[in-house]
Design the sequence.
């Protein structure tokens, strides 16, 4: 691929970007097959669950209309380190609750509103109402319901439904992986075009200089 008069570093960079693009293309093909497999298995397990539970026991009438997404996608990094990350808020809420429970069991004191000056010797003129005195109803209104969606269809759901849920959770993660690969492939194409443009420009400059 080398051309006389053209910087060899540029040629090596072109080869490196092209190799990275081919590797990403192979990863994309593999990820697409895995995504299709997860979707297929998820639908098959859901069909088995409907046969086991009954057609009317697994429908959209089993859950409310005002739902809160328990999964979100965030972006991290840039360039070839760019990636879409899937965050399961229900799992994060469980972790936070476990940490809070552990802190309470270790003998931590309950915080009071307006008690900020208690440690530095200043006079506390604020209200002594406790944070825990907030009505339970108000707490529930400020926190979204992040219970396991599988509980919408009963406490004793068949294993097939749990397997279906697991498959579709894998679908979400695999979709984010595919989006990441596509974004990196786009960056490779843009970089390759830019390097080609620079290579042609350098080649023309060398040709005109030689004349």
Sequence:
């Amino acid at each position: 691929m080398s051309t006389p008069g053209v910087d060899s570093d540029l040629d090596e960079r072109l080869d490196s970007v092209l190799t990275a693009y081919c590797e990403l293309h192979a990863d994309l093909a593999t990820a697409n097959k895995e995504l299709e497999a997860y979707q297929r298995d998820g639908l098959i397990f859901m069909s088995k669950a409907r046969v086991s539970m009954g057609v009317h026991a697994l429908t959209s009438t089993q859950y409310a209309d005002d739902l809160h997404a328990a999964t979100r996608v965030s972006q991290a990094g840039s360039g070839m380190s760019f990636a879409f990350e899937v965050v399961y808020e229900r799992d994060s809420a469980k972790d936070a609750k476990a940490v809070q429970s552990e802190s309470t069991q270790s003998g931590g004191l309950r915080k009071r509103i307006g008690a900020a000056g208690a440690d530095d010797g200043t006079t506390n003129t604020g209200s002594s109402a406790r944070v825990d005195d907030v009505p339970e109803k108000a707490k529930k209104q400020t926190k979204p319901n992040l219970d396991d969606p599988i509980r919408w269809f009963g406490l004793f759901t068949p294993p097939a439904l749990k397997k279906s849920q697991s498959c579709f959770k894998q679908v979400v993660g695999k979709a984010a992986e595919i989006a990441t690969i596509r974004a990196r492939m786009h960056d490779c194409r843009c970089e390759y075009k830019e390097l080609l443009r620079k290579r042609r420009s350098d080649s023309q400059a060398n040709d005109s200089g030689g004349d």
The mean pLDDT is 75.
